[in-house]
Design goal:
binds 1-deoxynojirimycin, TIM Barrel, 469 residues, 17 helices, globular, alpha/beta, 4-stranded parallel β-sheet
Length: 469
Amino acid sequence: MEEDDDVDDGTVNDCTLQTEGAWNADGKGPSIWDDYTHNYPDQVKDGSNADDSVESYRLFDSDLKILKDLGVDHYRFSIAWPRIFPNGSVHLRNQKGIDYYNDVIDKLLANGIEPVVTMFHWELPVEIQKFGGFTNSLIIEQFLDYAEELFKLFGDRVKTWLTINEPKELCKALYGSGVSPPSINAPGVGDYLCLTNILKSHGATYRMYREKFYEKQRGRIGLPSNINFLYSKANNTDEVARAMDFEFGVVGHPVLSKSGDFPPHVLKEIEQKSLAEGRKRSRLPSLGKYWSSVIKGSSDFLALNYYTAWQIEPLTGQVDEDSMMIDERDTNFATSMFENCPRAESVWLHFVPQGLEDLLKYIRDTYDNVEVKILENGWSDTGGNDDYMRIEYHRNHLQAVVNAINDGCNVTSYAPWSLMDSFEFTSGYTQKFGFYAVNMTSPNKERTPKKSAEFYKKVIKSKSVPYKF
Ligand code: NOJ
């Protein structure tokens, strides 16, 4: 690694479901996560929920203080749909929720921190799930209405919007494997319906913004995608190309390729499988001419979440329902982790910084060197302030970004995950990703910098990757 390489930096991020708490305060409606954690506490590792979490709703000023302490110039956070539209529909609005986000945005801007806003980071209003959520195409107009209100309410100040966080992971967890609420187990069907509806919701939102708001607001829009880089055990580049089309192409091809729609061989393979199963049509049909043209080009940059890389080999044994890729029955690949690389507290997260460099080069070569904004990248542990492994993780991943940039990749920003420890969905509070620890037993939930916060401060200040710390 070179000492003190230049890198464009200065961001950090959080998701409101994970940090806000105040699950039913001031008129907020319930999300599917509120219902789930209340009804099935045994499904969360430590039996916890996000009712209070780290209380960013009440303690945003403490968050602002640590953002300033870090010295960031961007902050990514999400808006909780049911906080401002309690049952999801925009005809019923909750002014107190709107006031809260106005306050957050205004305070960030007053302190020289640009708000980067995710419209949907998994807090689906319960009422919308009652009608099938993302598996019902009704969601397209519901999301469009919601997005339009967000542009009206906050678009004068928010210039970077992210629509729906991690479509592939979201669809698989909610409607494929069903490991997250609403726990629908319909792999290869529910997850594909969801993915199709998300792409349409995203594309329609982008077009609506361009038509109605862009001239005045001049913002940019992205679709945050988690991508694991995949290495072939047999070193076979065709395998990697085919597997990456399932891993990212199902989102990237419709949005970023010149031809649009899902990758042709993915469409063909899934259609053949579906027909062989005796179905009348494919479980993943083409998006069609109209929707392909709406979705194609509907992103001003590639919003990338990168955590780890995997190995692939042709599937011979049993299908792994928990694989992070989309349905193994369709990909025909078995995935495994790099067991020789250190593992984080999250079982799916191994330390593979080379994967980020290789992924960025893959994106450069496959998607016409599109601008990449890295929105998430982080390491989990069980807590403690001497988090040297987190420092190593970020140092090495930042270096991977620098290497990629030096090789012509068009990366313009890097945001670690995350500002502070928070609620990690079905893992509860057992996995910590933050630069700041939170005292969960004190009334004011004080935030304390870990060693990694000191490291990241140095990164931001020097705009370089510190070799020594
Ligand atoms: C991606 C998600 O966007 C975020 O909410 C989560 O905490 C991290 N992955 C770590 O699992």
